[in-house]
Inverse folding.
């Protein structure tokens, strides 16, 4: 397939791995964070980490939209789903995220009308087909998914679909990155930037990373050679003493992003003063809610939402995993009490979660072998 | 899971390359197909005018960028 096969070429991979090997200083430890869960998935699916020198460590960032949803937010969703006459819709992975008293899937088994959708547009279609029911869409995701929700809300308003509303849990990528960079727990040397978020926001919002924190970032695609090349570009910057935003994924990402998407998001959403992230706590101006112009489509206005903060289970160390402080297999319940079939923590739920990636691709409990 | 390669779009934070099959320009919608043949109705309001045969990167049924530019 065009744009896929050439980015999975083993020969090119070997060349890139050799270049990376020659770019690293022996004795120096490099800690690079891939921000996006899609990168984490690719790295373990294709074994990209096995091609890296032993002193290049990959740390998995908070860019999985399911993994960062706190338990209290799931409880809020279940509370709405249990309201009489409600059809509650969400993405499939979200149904398995544990709340304090079970998941949406369990609430569905107990009788709530909860349906999986592939997009907000599907949820709007259900609303049109069920005019006597209230249809709520549980919106999650970063700037990649937020335009989809925004367009659907515009369409609902334009078409006068009065029985449709949205429980907005969209988040933005820059504030958690800033929080991680401010964290004393973590010393990072550079970032593999989120390619698909950048198709919307562009590469410019990441300029604060070199400007304010002196770290390089390379926006990258999701094929194995994309990730490998981006790692090579970060290491080259470090070797040459440069520190800037580079765009490895220029075949898809315009530096300025998608202005139409940003415009529609600005119309439909506004920033919340604070939003709670699983494991990271409350981060200022990191979550989106519906703007005043769309408040009539806000499920949190239409329905009573408990809004209670629920602490993560004590056994679960998703917070440390999301901050890159521990590897998934270092968590006490990884692969035993917590598996993709019966997840305790969010990182084990989504295929983009670091724990699920480690589990599904056999990284149970071993250090990386030296190349 | 759908047939978009071996990845799952159920958390929807996944870009899927799709090819335009038909266009309803008035409603800013297009029928698009994945490499595996799965078809979805896709919002095209965020990309310029498209014609059948164009390739788009699609997130949660919204085209974010053209892939052939």
């Amino acid at each position: 397939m065009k744009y896929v096969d050439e980015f999975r070429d083993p020969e090119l991979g070997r060349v890139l791995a050799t270049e990376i090997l020659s770019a690293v200083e022996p004795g120096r430890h490099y800690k690079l964070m891939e921000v996006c869960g899609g990168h984490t998935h690719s790295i373990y699916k294709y074994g990209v980490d096995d091609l890296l020198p032993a002193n290049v460590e990959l740390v998995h960032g908070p860019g999985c939209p399911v993994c960062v949803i706190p338990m209290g937010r799931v409880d809020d969703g279940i509370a709405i789903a249990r309201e009489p006459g409600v059809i509650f819709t969400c993405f499939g992975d979200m149904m398995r995220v544990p709340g304090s008293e079970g998941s949406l899937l369990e609430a569905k088994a107990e009788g709530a009308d909860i349906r999986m959708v592939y997009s907000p547009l599907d949820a709007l279609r259900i609303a049109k087909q069920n005019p006597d029911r209230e249809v709520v869409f549980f919106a999650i995701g970063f700037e990649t998914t937020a335009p989809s929700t925004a367009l659907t809300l515009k369409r609902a308003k334009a078409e006068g679909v009065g029985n449709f509303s949205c429980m907005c849990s969209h988040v933005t990528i820059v504030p958690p990155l800033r929080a991680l960079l401010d964290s004393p727990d973590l010393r990072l040397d550079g970032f593999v930037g989120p390619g698909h978020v950048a198709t919307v926001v562009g590469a410019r919002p990441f300029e604060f990373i070199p400007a304010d924190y002196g770290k390089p970032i390379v926006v990258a695609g999701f094929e194995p050679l994309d990730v490998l090349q981006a790692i090579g570009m970060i290491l080259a910057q470090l070797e040459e003493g440069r520190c800037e935003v580079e765009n490895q994924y220029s075949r898809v990402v315009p530096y300025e992003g998608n202005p139409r998407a940003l415009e529609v998001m600005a119309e439909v959403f506004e920033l919340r003063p604070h939003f709670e992230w699983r494991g990271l706590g409350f981060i200022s101006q990191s979550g989106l809610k519906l703007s005043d112009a769309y408040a009539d489509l806000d499920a949190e206005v239409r329905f009573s939402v408990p809004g209670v903060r629920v602490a993560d289970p004590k056994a679960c160390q998703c917070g440390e995993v999301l901050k890159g402080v521990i590897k998934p297999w270092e968590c006490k319940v990884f692969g035993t009490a917590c598996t993709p079939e019966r997840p305790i923590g969010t990182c084990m739920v989504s295929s983009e979660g670091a724990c699920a990636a480690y589990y599904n691709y056999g990284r149970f409990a071993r250090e990386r072998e030296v190349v | 899971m759908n047939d978009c390669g071996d990845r799952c779009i159920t958390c929807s934070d996944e870009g899927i390359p799709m090819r335009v099959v038909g266009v309803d320009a008035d409603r800013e919608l297009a029928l698009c197909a994945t490499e595996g043949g799965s078809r979805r109705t896709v919002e095209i309001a965020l990309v310029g005018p498209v014609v059948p045969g164009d390739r788009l990167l699609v997130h949660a049924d919204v085209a974010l960028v053209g892939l052939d530019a």
Notes: Chain B is about 0% helix and 40% strand.
